[in-house]
Amino acid sequence: MKAVVHDRYGPPEVLRVEEVERPVPADDEVLVRVHATTVTQTDCHMRRARPFFWRFMLGLRRPRRKVLGTEFAGVVEEIGSSVTQFEIGDRVFGLRSGAHAEYLCVREARLVVRMPDRMTFEQAAGTCDGMYQARNALRAGRVDKDTRLVIYGASGSLGTAAVQLAANLGAHVTAVCNGRNAELVRSLGADEVVDYEREDFTRNGQTYDVVLDAVGKHSFLRCRRSLVPGGIYVATDRLYNLPLALLTRWSSRRVVFDFAGHDRESVLLVKELVEAGRYRPIIDRTYPLEDVVEATTYVESWQKTGNVVLTLNGVAR
Description:
Layout: E1 2-5, E2 16-19, E3 29-39, H1 41-48, H2 54-58, E4 71-79, E5 91-95, E6 103-107, E7 112-114, H3 121-125, H4 128-140, E8 148-152, H5 157-169, E9 172-177, H6 182-187, E10 192-195, E11 208-213, H7 220-223, E12 227-235, H8 241-247, E13 254-257, H9 264-275, E14 283-288, H10 292-299, E15 307-311
Parallel strand pairs: 8-9, 8-11, 9-10, 11-12, 12-13, 14-15
Antiparallel strand pairs: 1-2, 3-4, 3-6, 3-15, 4-5, 5-7
């Protein structure tokens, strides 16, 4: 089968499409023929091994995990002998490492569910990762009804998911993004939109209960005065936020850094919200698997809106 592999850390050009051995499902696994997957910022961090701590998980000198990717959508092609929840031919989506490949095996009890009927493979592939990150971040910030929330980087994968989830919770959402995406984030449920190219939300005189930095490009120190007493800055990147979380734990304004992992509940929730018409994944660009270097270069430009999708096995539907 075809897969995107890399055997050294470095720029997007270390990636290449290569024939690798097709996996065989265990008794409790399904074999999924992948029709669509995504390129995320996490994939880029892992490929570069930056920050350096990634190497302690992935391999100090060379990557032990040669195939990247976490989100997938496709069709069940084989099932293990003890599988009861899925049948051959089911359209499914979810999260599993090694998703930049034509086939992957997923335990039926883990992060895989049937796709909503009206979703395309491309849409389904771009649904889970941003959703789970946004859900965990909003939980860490204790976002609820009437919470005054700022989402910095509201037009990315995590950001577009966070806007929708926060709106569903009844929070008052101020979305910070560039001007060209203002109408998009409004359509997702933002109450106010700030164009960061024209205005600095930390200088508008308003205060908020929570600031969520969805792209890891802001800082607690810059927005501290924009938080009410008891306010929370939710970090999603930058290692220096770890000691800040400890130092501000008992302060009137504090940093939280969420480390919650993937869970099946998040995948089931996003399916439920999609079916109810309360959530939609945002797809920026779609590339064939063979153009993974171009797709990754675009993701690293930090200009993407929502998700960047890779299609396999012909055009995804």
